[in-house]
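G., the chain you wanted modeled:
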Amino acid sequence: MAAKAKPQVIALEEHYWDRDIAKHFTGHASHRTQDILDRLYDIGTIRLKEMDAAGVDVQVLSHGAPSAQQLPVQVAGQIAREANDRLHAAIGANAQRFAAFAALPTPDPKAAADELERVVTKLGFKGAMVHGLTHDKFLDEPQFWPIFERAAALDVPIYFHPAEPHPAVIEAYYKTYAAKHPMFPAAAWGFGVETATQAIRLVLSGVFDKYPNLKIILGHMGECLPFALWRIDHTIGKVNGSSFRDVFCEHFWITTSGVFSDPALMLTIQELGIDRVLFSIDWPFVANGPAVDWMKDVPLSGEDKAKIFGGNAKRLLRL
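Predicted structure as tokens:
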């Protein structure tokens, strides 16, 4: 009997940095080791070597936090456009191994919507990734809805990724322990709380009623939302005539980035269904090998593993 073909492994939350965007960051590079920085700035030798070693076939590249969300409004559009052009040129050398999510200049919502359309229709990008707040504003505020309108019209997803929480939140919630445990307001807890709050606000805002084709991706196993979904749905009640659960399960996809837990995966599948779960690693902050090895061994059928490893991403992103 012939051996079954290896499922294609597509990883959706795999980061890089553009030097022109990164030079506007304040303090972020100081928190990165040289080893991480070398990988963030590489779209070639290091990245491909580590993908090959772990059996990752395709990375969907996205700019790491805070990306273009904190750029000055006067220059955000030009800087993001040039960065996306550079990313397109870089991945062109290995077009079978890389795809891309755009960096969007959300400080200028009109420019962000136009840039999304340009990179999708002209450069073949698969959607966009945005990071946290835009100058202390959540993106469910109406001024940002042109971005969602354009994403829905183009039928591409927007990936909501964490970034540093609002300064007032850091002061009130995390300051006491942040110095000793710097990951507490960041990847350990604060990032997820901020991004989950954004997702809930999106549902409550009515943006999905306005743009019923809008698709949103959340990383890190849904930023804990699948685990709280029953209680959120039970306590909030109807949202514009629909249950919170129904809206969430219709418009959101969840990735495994940085959370390689069997119980977490199984619960997420139970809440949203196998077709809504996408494989991601969170490279270079997480190594490729352990993520791929974990997914190979999860207690699912080969068919379901193939969906998570790449089949669901192929359908969502039309890869």
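The mean pLDDT is 95.

Shout if anything looks off.
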